Amino acid sequence: IGYPARAAAGVLSEDPRRFGSLFLLVVLPGTQGFYGFVAAFLIIGNIARVETLAQGMQLFFAALPIAITGLLSGIHQGKVCAAGVNLVAKQAKQGMKGVIFAAMIETYAVLGLLITFFLINSVQF
């Protein structure tokens, strides 16, 4: 959220009316944190069933897909969203193009969450 928020603050200092068109570009990179939160709750729901070190390690490694894809896609999505904010600053009606580019990166975080979900559910208790 840091990259696009800094860029949006500069745009909003010039034209506060663009808040609505910038809001989605600013908050979109934060969804990766939400996906990690969902994965954590899925793991916490199973933690009481863990009886062996192997099961605990399986849950740990099941979290890695969302951890890695969430981190990397969040960083890159923040940069793309910041570029989208710059696009809105120059051409206000083109903001959805920036959102579409950011959504393409979002796909990888969703896939990471999906893989984590499948891995958590495959742990044998």
Automatic annotation (TrEMBL):
Keywords: Ion transport, Membrane, Transmembrane, Transmembrane helix, Transport. CDD domains: ATP-synt_Vo_Ao_c_NTPK_rpt1, ATP-synt_Vo_Ao_c_NTPK_rpt2. InterPro entries: ATPase_proteolipid_c-like_dom, ATPase_proteolipid_csu, F/V-ATP_Csub_sf. The keyword Cytoplasm does not apply. It is a multi-pass membrane protein. GO terms for molecular function: proton-transporting ATPase activity, rotational mechanism. Pfam families: ATP-synt_C. This is V-ATPase proteolipid subunit C-like domain-containing protein. Its main location: membrane. It is found in: Membrane. The chain crosses the membrane at residues 22-47, 59-78, 98-120. Residues 2-43, 61-119 form the V-ATPase proteolipid subunit C-like domain. Belongs to the V-ATPase proteolipid subunit family. One of its GO terms (cellular component) is proton-transporting V-type ATPase, V0 domain.
